[in-house]
Amino acid sequence: MGQTLTRTLASAIALSAGLFATAAIAQDDITIAMQLEPPHLDPTSAAAQAIDSVVYTNIFEGLTRFMGDGSVVPGLAESWEISEDGTEYTFKLRDGVTFHDGTTMDAEDVKFSLDRARAEDSANAQKALFAGISDVTVVDPQTVKITLKEPDGNFLFNLAWGDAVIVAPESIEDIKTNPVGTGAYTFSEWVQGDRIELTRNPDYWGEQPAIATATFRFISDPTAAFAAVMAEDVDVFTAFPAPENLPQFEADPRFQVLIGSTEGETILSTNNKQAPFDNVKVREAMAHAIDRQAIIDGAMFGYGTPIGTHFAPHHPAYIDLTGQSAYDPEKAKALLAEAGLADGFETTLHLPPPSYARRGGEIVAAQLAEVGIKAEIINVEWAQWLETVFKGKNFGLTIVSHTEPMDIGIYARPDYYFQYENPEFQALMEELTRTTDPDKRTELLQQAQRMIADDYVNGYLFQLAAITVAKAGIEGLWENAPTAAVDLTGVKWTE
Amino acid sequence: MRRNLILGTALSSLVLLAALLSFVWTPYDHAALSIPDKLQTPGPEHWFGTDHFGRDMFSMIMVGARTSIAVALIAVGIGMGLGVPLGLTAAARKGSWLDEVIMRGNDLVFAFPSIIIAILITAVFGAGAVNAIIAIGIFNIPVFARVARGAALSLWEREFILAARVAGKGPARISAEHILPNIANLLIVQGTIQFSLGILAEAGLSYVGLGAQPPTPSWGRMLADAQTMVSFAPHLALIPGLAIIVTVLGLNLMGDGLRDWLDPRIRVARA
Predict the structure, then answer these.
(1) Which of A34, A73, A183, B231 has the most CB atoms around it within 10 Å of its CB?
(2) Is A259 an 8 Å CB contact of chain B?
(3) pLDDT at position B199, please?
(4) Which residue, among A147, A76, A133, has the nearest Cα to A106 in the 3D structure?
């Protein structure tokens, strides 16, 4: 009797499992995990990448936008005209675009957003993007004209950033907790410390995406991240934190591993105003003391591309300058001796939580010790890092990945935390902003790359790899990370 | 049981020997990275294998033993050095306000789980071996104060103490000359047990990143580093885990054995 019952039950379960399997074909929900939870959801008032990962192109859109391959394409602006002298951009906005609260998106909203971002008291984390704007005028509800102080070859690229998205004056008050944008997804719920849920926007101006509901989950611990993917608790993990586990995912037919490139130049940031780092010989010595490949293999299990300057290798203007600072401990010792530091010196090495920094830092410290530089490792949390290193500039060395796209301009800011002050470089950046000719721009960018490599401003380690682990049946995820984003609009399940 | 004492002493000595030996000899330089040799399994070349940076695990375990023992030993020293005098004072002044203050202060520290106090202290004053020592030392104080006070109280009722008082000795002198030697056995046993708890606490603090900082090897941090690699390199976690087990088991067995051995009542019964 008992056995029959068990058998009946078993077949009932098998049957229902079969039913569910059939239902799964039409799966239109997705769970995406990432390591850090956003502090709030306003991309226009904070630098936190986690905000963009959730909201960029999903909730908020800009006049232009990035695609997964890094190209810039029209966003809310359908088309644009650039005046002969390159200082006037006239954007034609898309028709029938509404915000999630039902209000229409028109030229007034564009003016509001850009004026807000470039205002004196603006909290925008990338105000430099808008510094060149002298005026924004509403021509008619569908047309907006932006006047620049001088031509800026980067302007359309700048407008694609998450910091330049279009927001509405009607909903700006609560943007941090209830973001209202124009994107294909509306914000539904945020359970702090656990998840954020987005729902497909039926009134979206563009094509309806395949995924109806998306859940973002936050799993900071690398071990828990591994377990969550293995247990299939999450469908996608972006910026997967434990590269050592990738071979296991690659060998498992349930998963796919996407390896792409990011805009993250991982560097050994050096306090250029602090002795002895104010001596270029010392910085050059450190550059030769570091074995990049050992760091990539040891800290990232081989994922990452060596860089010799602050520039992304996948960019057409990139030049490989790694040879200039090749691993040569003998030369490093000689240079230190020339600088009068034959016995080495002591400094600090602040390490934020990601494994590229913590593990990379242990390797860097050991390599520096080989040439006599004793770097005391200080592990810090992000808040502490921002406070002491980034704002306080109270550090000798630190390891951090600069993930903003095309951010070589930070070297023109003498008050930036690594405090590189070179008027020549600043002039070069100004010239670059004025230049619109692509060939000339490439030349200037290459000149800039060489200049900071010649000055050994920071130790250039490697370009962070974009590591995404996903279930096998998912298509349309970005392989590369031209900006922090999880663009859901192209994602779908194939099985 | 005598067997516990022998086994416990043997295990503890093994760890102590490894720690002492590491000052003069380790098979490899414990801090030398060699990325191409990473994640080797235990074998004739590297007895305990290599870690994710290609460092020799055996050397790291030896030097890690040094870290663990040093931290636990000094911490127990702090606990004993401050706790015992406090306990003796409280016993000598039994019932006075001083006794109340000391013992209620102890209760306060006791009210928090020890590891939480240690995490609190290192989180406030910064991570590092020195702060770990202080943190573990502080939560050891009330343990010793209580043991000392409890044992001393019963002694204060005894005739030989009365004789000493009649001879004109003050409470401080009596505590030092008559009470302390008579409770030394107990304190040694307690010290052994606290020592093993100290090793565990140090490993716990290092595991959450609040103990000894890299490159100083520490068993707790070796465990933490191994976490994401357990599935393909289990030796990274097993070896420091076993080191902690052997040490703590050894010390606890030794403590048990010592108690039995030193306890006069059991000794009498055996005789």
Answers:
(1) A183
(2) no
(3) 93
(4) A76
Give the Cα separation of A50 and A41 in Å (integer). 9
Q: What is the mean pLDDT of residues B164-181?
A: 90
Peptide bond into A141 cis (omega under 30): no
> Residue B269 pLDDT > 70, yes or no?
no
SS3 B179: helix
Whether A291 has a pLDDT exceeding 90, the answer reads: yes
Can you give the pLDDT at residue A495?
A: 66
Q: For helices A329-338 and A280-289, what crossing angle results, to 10°?
A: 160
Chain A contact for B228 (CB, 8 A cutoff): yes
For range A223-240, the mean pLDDT = 94
What's chain B's length in residues? 271
pTM score of the predicted model: 0.82
Identify the pLDDT of residue B121.
Answer: 82
Of B31, B209, B213, which has the smallest distance from its Cβ to A366's Cβ? B31
CA distance to A117, A128, A321, per residue, from A122 (Å): 6, 11, 38
| Rounded-to-integer distance, Cα A173 and Cα B49, Å | 58
pLDDT higher than threshold 50 for residue B215: yes
Predicted pLDDT of residue B231: 87
Could you identify the residue written with the tokens 């395949």? A210
Q: Classify residue B24 as left (phi > 0), alpha (psi -120 to 50) or beta.
A: alpha
Number of Cα atoms under 13 Å in the Cβ half of residue A455: 21
B122, B228, B232, best to mutate vs chain A, most A CBs in 10 Å? B228
The reported pLDDT for the residue numbered A1 is 43
* Chain A residues in contact with B35 (beta carbon < 8 A): 294, 297-298, 363
d(CA A72, CA A465): 21
Alpha carbons B71 and B93: distance in angstroms, whole number: 33
Pick from A67, A91, A62: nearest CA to A78: A91
Distance between start and end Cα atoms, chain A: 40
Is residue A199 a contact partner of residue A208, using CB atoms and an 8 Å limit? no
Strand partners, A98: A104
Inform me whether the pLDDT recorded for B35 exceeds 70.
yes
Cα gap A285→A317, rounded to integer Å: 27
**Whether A142 contacts A50, CB under 8 Å:** no
A365: which 2 tokens?
Answer: 């410290």
